[in-house]
Design a protein that fits this description.
Elements lengths: L12 E10 L2 E11 L4 E5 L6 H9 L6 E6 L2 E2 L10 E4 L11 H11 L5 H11 L15 H13 L5 E5 L7 H18 L2 E6 L2 H7 L2 E6 L2 E6 L1 H6 L4 H6 L4 E10 L3 E6 L2 E6 L9 E6 L5 E3 L9 E14 L3 E8 L3 E8 L12 E7 L4 E3 L5
Parallel strand pairs: 3-8, 3-9, 6-7, 7-8
Antiparallel strand pairs: 1-2, 1-4, 4-5, 9-10, 11-12, 11-14, 12-13, 14-20, 15-19, 16-17, 16-19, 17-18
Bound molecules: adenosine-5'-triphosphate.
The site of adenosine-5'-triphosphate has 12 residues, from strand 2 and helix 1.
Protein name: Spermidine/putrescine import ATP-binding protein PotA
Family: Belongs to the ABC transporter superfamily. Spermidine/putrescine importer (TC 3.A.1.11.1) family.
Catalytic activity: ATP + H2O + polyamine-[polyamine-binding protein]Side 1 = ADP + phosphate + polyamineSide 2 + [polyamine-binding protein]Side 1
Amino acid sequence: AEHAAFAESGADLELVGIQKRFPGFTAIEELDLTIPAGSFFALLGPSGCGKTTTLRLVAGLEDPTAGRILIGGTDVSGLKPHKRPVNTVFQSYALFPHMSVLENVAFGLRRRRIGDPVGKAHEALRLVELDHVADRKPAQLSGGQQQRVALARAVVNRPALLLLDEPLGALDLKLRRQMQQELKQIQQEVGLTFLHVTHDQEEAMTMADTVAVMNKGRIEQMGAPEELYELPRTVFVANFLGQSNLFAVEVAGGTEQVLHTDFGGSRISVPRARSVRDSGAITVGVRPEKLHLSLAEPPAAADTNVIGPGRITDVSFIGVSTQYTVEVPGAGPVQVFAQNLQAGPQAALGDEAWLSWHTEHTFGLADDRL
Ligand code: ATP
């Protein structure tokens, strides 16, 4: 704690009523967010949704048009970037090419006159398992190693909050998946608060405790990865996180537990607890891997939704699964992912097929049209 700005552990981050307007464009409509200390939080969304702007506001590189930013309960809104207990890791590593790996990591400590910069830099390099290349120049390292040096440099002064802006974006897919595991482990070891920005849903889901899905300058939904996947609340979230089959239906009664909906003559039931609205026109959905494909009409059962018959218009063998597209009259193309527990696909192109799933797996969305 040589420098007041740097904490021994992570701090929580609060964004209160944040809005950001650029001349002629509102990048952030309204943002309220609390990230608990020590958590790994991912901001996930498509290009242009306002993720980077959010990070830049927290880092102090932009000023909000409205709202307040609190780190560890302290309002940092008026503070210059270097006065905030925050470091950022970008997609471009921005290492100094003429300095050794060790000096790159120790640089910020020296500039701030923090004690034992060399000892601390070695410690940070051990954390990312690169202490054995401390004397090399950045150009003598692989892309993944350079990114780990950038990470060591960002955590060496123990910022209360680490901002990561697509830090793995420049890496190839395999290295990226490996670094995701490593980043997560490092975050758990150091216990700092991580705010990670990405457009890669798999990346957000693998690493974060909590994911906020952002769209057009707003958070659409926020929760644990499993929760967002199992219970998306909007069409955007249902489609952005994995794939969904969505059906426009009309609520037509129900029981205490489930809503019955009218879907072109057949019925799709959705648990009330899994539906956002309980009357009128709604959208219901089910994930492709929850569907069961049958070549004969399955027997009716109270806890099962059945639609069909449709026609199989595509069969793709993926290895672990076979993905079918079934054209169901009134529903359009429906995706089915069937695990290949036996050898070979069970159904063929052009076959007539019914689709069924446990009522439990249906979710209802707030949107009244697709
Ligand atoms: P990406 O993943 O492509 O970086 P993002 O979600 O990080 O996207 P932002 O960089 O936050 O998006 O940008 C959000 C929106 O604000 C974009 O439409 C962008 O064009 C706009 N924007 C960003 N900075 C400025 C600026 N200085 N002036 C005007 N518009 C801006």
